Structure formats: C-alpha cells, structure tokens
Amino acid sequence: MFKSLFEAAQNSTFKSPFTSVNCQAATNSPTTLTTSGSDVAPRQLAPNHNFAAAAVAQGDSCEFGSNKYFLLCGLGGIISCGSTHTMVVPLDLVKCRLQVDPAKYKSVVNGFRISLAEEGIRGLAKGWAPTFIGYSMQGLCKFGLYEVFKVIYSDAIGEENAFLYRTGLYLAASASAEFFADIALAPMEAAKVKIQTTPGFAKTLREALPKMTAQEGISAFYKGLVPLWMRQIPYTMMKFACFERTLELLYKYVVPKPRADCTKGEQLIVTFAAGYIAGVFCAIVSHPADTVVSKLNQAKGASAIDVAKQLGWSGLWGGLVPRIVMIGTLTAAQWFIYDAVKVFLRMPRPPPPEMPESLKKKLGVTGAQ
C-alpha cells in the first residue's frame, strides 16, 4: 500500500503544488518549466507537452517528490519526533499522573516533588523506551506520509485549487498521514502510559509487554487507538496547517526581507517561531482526548466514553498548562530539527506558496501574492 502511494506521488505532475508556470509559444526547441522561488533547476517541457522527469537541483541530494525525498522526510520525522518526545519524558510522566490521579498530584511542581520522593531521579525517566520507539515510528509515518499525501491531493485538485485551498490541502494531508502514524504509535503509547501511571506494574518496556499481553491480549495495545486518533489527528492537522500558514504570514509580514535573502540559520529561526505558535494551538485542541488516553490506558476494561463521563468536563482539562509548555516546545523543536535535517541532507526546501501565473492572469493580479 505504501509503495503504491510513493509511486503515485512520484508520478504526479504536481510534485510541487505551488509552481509558477511561464508558458511560451511552441518552438522547435523544448521550452522550460521552472519552480518559482526555489533553487530547483529548470525542467524540460517536451514539444508534445509531456513533462520530463525533474532534474535534481544543483547542490540538492535528491529530486523533490522522488522516493528518496519521501524516505528522507521520513528519516527527518524519526529524528525530530523520537528525540524530542524522549527529552520531555519527565514532564510527560508528571502530566500523565496529574491526569489520572489529580487527588494525589496537585500541580506540576507537586507532581515532580512526589515522583522524586517515591522513585528518585531515575523514576522520572520511566517510559523512555516506549516513548522513543513509538514516537520514532510515528514520526516516520507522520512527516513522510504528509509529504506523500500533499502531493497526491494537490495532483487530484490541480495547481490553481491547490493554491486557493491550500489550508484544506494541509489539513487533509496531515489527517491522512496521522491516521497511519497512530496505528504505528498505539502499542508503545499504551505501554508507556501503563508504566508511568500504574504503580508497581513494570519498570521497563521488556517487563511491561508480556504482562499486558497476559492480562488483556493484543487488545491491550490497541484499545486506546480510537481516542488516540481523536487526540492526534486534530493535533496533527493543527500542527501542519497552522505551521504552514504561520510560516507564510511570518515571511510576508514579519521577516524584513524575502526568504530567498535569509541565511539558512535565519530560516531555521523562523521555522522555530512558527512551530511554537502552532504547538500552543495543538495542545489546546487535542488536550481532552489526551486526558482520556492517559486515563484509559490506566483503567483496565474501561471504554473511552466511560472515562470521559467519569472525568467530567473540568477533568478533561486537567494538566493543560504543563501540556501547553510541553507541546509548544516540542512542536517548535520538531519543526526546527526536521528543517535542520533537510538542510544537513541537502534536500529540496520549497519556499512558501505563491499564486500560479495562470491564476494571476485569470484574476487580473499583478505582482507576488
């Protein structure tokens, strides 16, 4: 299935959905098609109007939209998601405990104090292994498939609609990618929460997996999948759509010079800022479902609806402040690392979208939009 997705994306005539096309009268020699605002080398447009394969831009390690490009995007997702989620395990542990036992853990500071007193400094690292494995797998699917679906959907609606409805395009592509990413994440997320919130259950992933299998079978690892979708899909939709549009607005209204004139370091700073803004909104829209997931994986035999009723409206928002801090920082760091990986691996990094020339002519627009 994934192979067919990669092939469909690679063969798309809209590998980069936001291109400016300069159409010229046909001549005996081939004309060229260029991607506006990027460093991509001209692509040959044959006399019969069939697109030839895009050449690799000078200095780039791969062609935009190629299988190698998508795989490297997946690698960037592994590095960005796996590393950042593992770094905030102590905060995540306290956040989960605030959600499942608010009577014992009164606040973030109190949660840290109790956790340190009961388990010592090493106790704060509980659940690091399933966190690293699970979120690395999720990052592979999330970032890699987002790029794939973005190309497929832009191909389906056409270049002009891809620009006009780009927010919807970001939302659809990210939701599709996260659907598969959560299937990869669910088993490790269930193990992580069980280790962190059930006293005496298990100290390590190696100890937790056989116990969970013996108690509830394979369902123990996927009973939280639906609430995980409820948490992660809105989160990821906001993460990608808000980031893409915020990045576009920052370059248009805040950054005092065009993106092309910014150094790689300056571009990464803008990426971090856009990521943090997106992260705050991500935390808010996904928090109730996150609380349900935490409580569900702790409570044996309970359903998501049962847990939600038990918590009540106010209980669903327990631990929101630490999660805003955690997710804001996490999202910003993920986008920064992901973009830095692209820079390090010399991958194509298309600029924010611009209105296609054909649409400018239709609308009578002059200049960049």
Automatic annotation (TrEMBL):
Keywords: Membrane, Mitochondrion, Mitochondrion inner membrane, Repeat, Transit peptide, Transmembrane, Transmembrane helix, Transport
Compartments where located: Mitochondrion inner membrane
Bilayer disposition of the protein: Multi-pass membrane protein
Gene Ontology CC annotations of this record: mitochondrial inner membrane
Listed GO biological process terms: mitochondrial phosphate ion transmembrane transport
GO molecular function, one term: phosphate transmembrane transporter activity
One Pfam family hit: Mito_carr
Segments annotated as Solcar repeats: 68-152, 165-249, 266-344
Main location, first listed in the record: mitochondrion
Segments forming a coiled coil: none
PANTHER family per the UniProt record, alphabetical: SOLUTE CARRIER FAMILY 25 (MITOCHONDRIAL CARRIER PHOSPHATE CARRIER), MEMBER 3, LIKE-RELATED-RELATED, SOLUTE CARRIER FAMILY 25 MEMBER 3
Family to which the UniProt record says this protein belongs: Belongs to the mitochondrial carrier (TC 2.A.29) family.
Role summary: Transport of phosphate groups from the cytosol to the mitochondrial matrix.
Name this protein carries in UniProt: Phosphate carrier protein, mitochondrial
